[in-house]
């Protein structure tokens, strides 16, 4: 069994509001870390992807839990190199510059695969040829190990007008890849700033709430939805039958 916490869209910008919300989430997760296997952060950790913002968010998320990150469009405004240096700790000869940020983590109850759906400088997403080839090889190599796949951009429409135009482009290529890999139990996304669930390639597609804000549906009051909601997160349990179960939670205020 694998138990994951999943957050997204922290949008650390050097200001107090975003920072306080991330502190609240991080402190809560650290307190329950013994019950969790890892924290998946599905992108837009920062507002502009500057070194200062990336260093701030890395420090905020440094706790007892292993942290698995995929970049979001806001994190790679000027390219992937700062994200790689700060979030992955690449230095000197290890630096891979603009290469997509793809990673696989093998854990006791399954594997977490995170891949890079960003197109640096653009809001919308696309899986590059390099990432698609890496994903195919990686999933082939994992055999029957159940997999949770994380990426920033949602590959299916969420009926949310502010983000559907900047969803993942060419989602059929990912769907075709997944059809060859039935061990992928579900997909975790961010980008849309809404706790939402749908399906993609016959698998659950689970969107993390935006830590910084919630984007309103057309019939919701934008001011009340965006400003009034506390930060939230998802917990995903991948059981031994390969079924994913998800609970969404708002984060309690810190004690004291
Ligand atoms: Fe975002
Ligand atoms: Fe985004």
TrEMBL record:
GO molecular function, one term: hydrolase activity
Signal peptide start and end residues: none
InterPro entries: Calcineurin-like_PHP, CNP_phosphodiesterase-III, Metallo-depent_PP-like
Superkingdom of source: Bacteria
Calcineurin-like phosphoesterase domain ranges (all copies): 3-195
Keywords: Hydrolase, Iron, Metal-binding
Pfam families in alphabetical order: Metallophos
Family named by the database record: Belongs to the cyclic nucleotide phosphodiesterase class-III family.
Entry protein name: Calcineurin-like phosphoesterase domain-containing protein
Originating organism: Streptomonospora alba
């Amino acid at each position: 069994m694998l138990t994951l916490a999943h957050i997204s869209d922290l949008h650390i910008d050097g200001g107090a509001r975003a920072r306080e919300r991330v502190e609240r989430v991080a402190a809560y997760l650290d307190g329950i870390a013994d019950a969790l296997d890892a924290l998946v952060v599905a992108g837009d950790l920062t507002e502009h992807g500057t070194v200062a913002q990336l260093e701030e968010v890395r420090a905020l998320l440094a706790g007892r839990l292993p942290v698995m990150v995929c970049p979001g469009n806001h994190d790679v405004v000027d390219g992937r190199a700062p994200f790689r240096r700060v979030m992955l700790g690449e230095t000197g000869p290890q630096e891979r510059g603009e290469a997509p940020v793809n990673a696989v983590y093998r854990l006791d109850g399954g594997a977490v695969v995170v891949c890079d759906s960003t197109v640096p400088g653009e809001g919308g997403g696309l899986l590059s040829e390099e990432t698609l080839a890496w994903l195919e090889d990686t999933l082939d190599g994992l055999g029957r190990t159940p997999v949770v796949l994380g990426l920033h951009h949602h590959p299916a429409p969420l009926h949310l007008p502010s983000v559907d135009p900047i969803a993942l482009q060419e989602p059929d290529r990912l769907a075709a890849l997944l059809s060859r890999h039935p061990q992928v139990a579900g997909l975790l996304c961010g980008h849309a700033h809404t706790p939402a669930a749908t399906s993609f390639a016959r698998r659950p597609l689970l969107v993390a709430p935006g830590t910084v804000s919630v984007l309103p549906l057309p019939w919701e009051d934008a001011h009340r939805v965006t400003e009034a909601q506390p930060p939230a997160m998802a917990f995903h349990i991948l059981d031994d039958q390969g079924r994913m179960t998800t609970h969404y939670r708002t984060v309690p205020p810190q004690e004291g």
